């Protein structure tokens, strides 16, 4: 059919208490997430975390073990993939090789028995939306990978499928093309306005396209938010480690009163905002600091600075990466810390094992209890 299948005012997707087991293996544990209509939502996480399982369960290719999925407010537990308002965009472009672009896009409408003039109108509109009006007579093998993807998107548009499921859509592309296509996908989604749910393990890709990112690992939806919030203010240690480059320091709470906490780390007492978290004296906690927020300086003498915002270590080595240089130092407990700075023309470095101070600003260190 070509009528909208469901209520357009409800969230596009509501996943409630969803678990998925494969035999004894738990691929998803009690996942809850709500995705707004028109949102570009990314599932990001390490390989094997459960991203594809979640996407395919939303699309109806897997049955949930527990829990419920609502699409535009309607429970879809019983519906097969083709009766859902979703379309899966496959990495191996699932187009009919012998049909033209126009025929590929119109195929579903033809099967549904729509009159020819309506098919032409809908297909023209969809191809214009995705910028393929110039390519109507080409066959799939005469199109680039990105153009083939746009044909798939046009197919979803003509069928009024307004939730697009994309599983690693750019994985097959080389790095430069991947960057270009990323932005193109984002612009397409903004123009067409349908909901995109995009699975990737590539954080740069996720940050480029997403309105919101959900981090998934070990079957858990660990955390979600805008790219900026996930980067600047990660709640969980996992998020801090997985996104961007972070220093993760293990410590023990020495004192937790008022709005800040003092944490013992490798013989130094560090001060960190409590962020309303519940911590008690002696508790083991993690502290994260982005490597670009750490300054590394040579020091004379070995007394640990007592400002709570720095720690002493010994210089290890530096890696020049063009735009940036990573300077590495070792703390007394063996932890390595990285200070990443914009590369300087002055390339004199400390001698190996020279005492150095690693320091940061108060807002740049974060406390994590899990
Ligand atoms: P990737 O990025 O590698 O695709 P992913 O986050 O998408 O990873 P899933 O494909 O959802 O992860 O898989 C999650 C876990 O479930 C993996 O450990 C995988 O081996 C397991 N799994 C997936 N499908 C099945 C299946 N049909 N039977 C048994 N185990 C499965």
Automatic annotation (TrEMBL):
GO terms for molecular function: ATP binding; ATP hydrolysis activity; transmembrane transporter activity. PROSITE patterns: ABC_TRANSPORTER_1 (PS00211), ABC_TRANSPORTER_2 (PS50893). Pfam families: ABC_tran, TOBE_2. GO terms for cellular component: ATP-binding cassette (ABC) transporter complex. Signal peptide: none annotated. InterPro entries: AAA+_ATPase, ABC_SmlMolc_Importer, ABC_transporter-like_ATP-bd, ABC_transporter-like_CS, Mo/tungstate-bd_C_term_dom, P-loop_NTPase, Transp-assoc_OB_typ2. Residues 13-243 form the ABC transporter domain. Keywords: ATP-binding, Nucleotide-binding, Transport. GO terms for biological process: putrescine transport. This is Spermidine/putrescine transport system ATP-binding protein. It comes from Roseivivax lentus.
